[in-house]
Inverse folding.
């Protein structure tokens, strides 16, 4: 199965000059969806993992079935104001300005083994912020897995020293 | 297993007077997470289902592993401006004003059998908007499943005629 057949290119979204990679056709096809989750999960199944962490919102879409597949718990990294309990935050740069991500303070204990999941590796900003959150709480990141990596944006440069795996490279 | 042991009550979130039901302890416990997904999915496994539809964002957290478990495709209902392709929208009331949800126009074909999933049935506003989107595209809703139902808010009153199932009733 070629997963690229299920990625739709949308020109000029969310703004002019951006070629957006739409993963919804892949999610909709039961065989492609199941196979891509298995491939993302099984890459790390030989490692000791305590929890899968997924980044809001599309990281939830791939992260929770990976947690289910690996029979591990799921921990969400969320946008500001969404998590109700004690939390910490980390900021990341946008084209203009910056934004933040948050995680519950009690989500991770020192030494917990974490698999970090998102759909897309672009510039790596949200991934790096999520790494900061996990490591501030003492978590040990044993792997980072993406459905799709945009090579031109060189996000991987910000993730040196981590075991990074992406299913598709565009 | 009593899933209620994994629901954390947070007073005054997101604002004073609201008792927020935090599902993150349940998601984090691998056995509770796995068991609740199986229970939500297996309630409908005897029915013919083509696609699972989940509502952004916490509906993604429970919806995608249910789709994985049932071996069906997943279709997201998203907040405004997130979906990149041709789409339709439906509005729902907030305490002050209103907001919208969107779905891709080609996500569902006439007669497709849909299982609609979200984490929480509160007033039923976002559920009703999602039903409107699915039915505008000709989808046939064979079931609606929630992790948690807040009985006092009587959201179920807006869902008459549908096969509605919730794991926990608070």
């Amino acid at each position: 199965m070629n997963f690229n057949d299920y990625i739709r290119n949308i020109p000029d979204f969310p703004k002019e000059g951006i070629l957006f990679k739409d993963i919804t056709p892949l999610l909709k096809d039961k065989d492609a969806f199941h196979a891509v989750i298995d491939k993302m999960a099984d890459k790390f199944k030989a490692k000791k993992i305590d929890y899968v962490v997924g980044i809001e919102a599309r990281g939830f879409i791939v992260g929770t079935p990976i947690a289910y597949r690996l029979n591990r718990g799921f921990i969400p990294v969320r946008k500001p104001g969404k998590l109700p309990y004690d939390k910490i935050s980390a900021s990341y740069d946008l084209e203009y300005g910056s934004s933040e991500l948050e995680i519950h303070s009690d989500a991770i204990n020192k030494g917990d083994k974490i698999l970090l999941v998102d759909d897309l590796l672009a510039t790596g900003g949200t991934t790096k912020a999520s790494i900061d959150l996990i490591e501030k709480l003492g978590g040990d990141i044993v792997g980072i897995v993406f459905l799709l990596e945009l090579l031109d944006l060189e996000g991987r440069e910000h993730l040196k020293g981590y075991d990074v795996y992406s299913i598709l490279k565009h």
Chain B touches chain A through 40 residues (CB under 8 Å).
